[in-house]
Design goal:
By secondary structure, this protein is of the alpha/beta class. The chain is 42% helix and 15% strand. The chain is built from seven helices and six strands. Helix 5 packs across helix 6.
Length: 171
């Protein structure tokens, strides 16, 4: 039986809803794809989202996001942002799953990348939920566990903006 609740939506930052981390800190005009993402969220009655971005490396970046970006993005998108785990957080969480000690966040992201990091994070924290990641670095993909209770979906931002060309993702 598939999940009937609203999905839990995760948004990437850079090249998905902002041009770059440093540019957005200086000017809200460096937001991108806001109209399309907001429309996509409204059509699904999504009022809360999370951030899943490699731009947030550590506790310091989490604080910068909370203090200098979160409110602006909430206003632009018309949603509340609930969570924004850092790469350090992801590394600690998935260590339980991997049973592997990563030396640092660089090693973690090099070995896992965004797609695998999201997959592992959802397998640990998203049991019996439908999680969707909207990102510029993923292909459109849907995974459903054998019970049909856990769905992990990735959507490339180009699909939402209607600028989708043919591309492939190497795993």
């Amino acid at each position: 039986m598939l999940i009937k609740n609203k999905p839990i939506v995760w948004l990437d930052l850079e090249e998905t809803i902002i041009t770059s981390w440093s540019d957005f800190l200086f000017s809200q005009t460096n937001a991108m794809n806001i109209k399309e993402v907001k429309s996509w969220l409204l059509a699904r009655e999504i009022k809360e989202v999370n951030i899943f971005s490699a731009a947030i490396w550590n506790k310091g970046d989490k604080e910068i996001f909370a203090d200098q970006m979160k409110n602006d993005l909430e206003e632009l998108l018309g949603v509340i942002i609930i969570k924004w785990p850092s790469i350090e957080d992801l590394m600690k969480e998935t260590k339980k799953f991997d049973r592997y000690h990563y030396e640092n966040t660089t090693e973690y992201i090099q070995q896992n990348g965004k797609f695998i990091s999201f997959l592992k994070y959802c397998m640990i924290n998203g049991k019996d939920q439908h999680n969707i990641l909207i990102d510029d670095c993923v292909t459109d993909w849907t995974m459903i566990d054998s019970t049909g209770k856990t769905i992990i979906e990735t959507i490339n931002i180009l699909t939402i903006t209607g600028k989708n060309g043919n591309f492939t993702l190497s795993l």
